[in-house]
Amino acid sequence: MMSKYESPDYQVVKKDGSFEIRRYKEFYTTSVDENKLSGYSGFGLLFSYISGNNKKNEKIQMTVPVINEFNNDQMSMEFVVPSKYYNQEIPTPNNEKLVTKFYPEHYAVALRFTGLSTAHHINKEKERLTQWLIKNKIESTGRYRLARFNPPFSIPFLRHNEIFIEVDYQE
């Protein structure tokens, strides 16, 4: 993983091959709605925001992963807010299309995969995750999310991607 970038804090509770049950600490994201996976308008708005296009005119450190939350034919594109802002005011975006989202502490199951995050590949990984949840009798409580950890110019087989979903889990 690209350790020079901050990412949401979690503990692995259980590991099963490529699948991990994780307990995430609370975190925030800055989010924009996007209508396609390869959409760059959302990325551009988010990049502009962290480059200083916010009410504080403050540059915000890049984090990983870039998250897409799937909702029928819509999806979000989200940048994780650096943890230094959790005890202070998160810079307000100048663009009204951008919103801050709060994720309380939660459990999620993540499936790591490499390659390009095409719709076909993502659907295949979502299905693998769905089957794993059924087999392990674990109930999902949220929507599927895609986490991408590498820049778009990274070599596909070296990319770190994850499909994950919040779950109802007891340790």
Task: Outline the structure in words.
This protein has 171 residues and is an alpha+beta fold. The chain is globular and about 50 Å long. A hairpin with a 2-residue loop joins strand 4 and strand 5. The mean pLDDT is 92. The chain has a single domain, classed as Multidrug-efflux Transporter 1 Regulator Bmrr, Chain A.
Summarize the entry for a quick read.
With 171 residues, the chain is an alpha+beta fold.
Task: Provide tags for this entry.
single chain; about 170 residues; alpha+beta; Multidrug-efflux Transporter 1 Regulator Bmrr, Chain A; 10-stranded antiparallel beta sheet; 2 helices; 10 strands; about 35% strand
Describe the protein's topology:
Layout: E1 10-16, E2 19-24, E3 27-34, H1 41-50, E4 66-71, E5 74-80, E6 99-103, E7 106-113, H2 119-135, E8 139-140, E9 145-148, E10 161-168
Antiparallel strand pairs: 1-2, 2-7, 3-5, 3-6, 4-5, 4-9, 7-10, 8-10, 9-10
